[in-house]
Here is the input.
Amino acid sequence: MAKTLDWYIRCFPAEAYATIGEIQRQAHKTWKAPAADTLSALRSALSLDGELTEQQRDLLRAARTA
Here is the structure.
């Protein structure tokens, strides 16, 4: 999953960030998972298995505060 999300962020960043927001909403709706925890889990998976640049990771961090 992380490699697919990584590719999506690199190739389609605007759409990917909207998808991340939807993942956060669905995780909250389904499991009552806080959005920040969901984003943290996604960031961890991307850090371990992804190929994002530092700048792309910074944008993902910024999405957490938006």
Observations:
- The first helix runs from residue 2 to 11.
- Helices lie at 2-11, 13-31, 35-49, 54-65.
- Residues 6 and 12 are 10 Å apart (CA to CA).
- The chain has a mean pLDDT of 87.
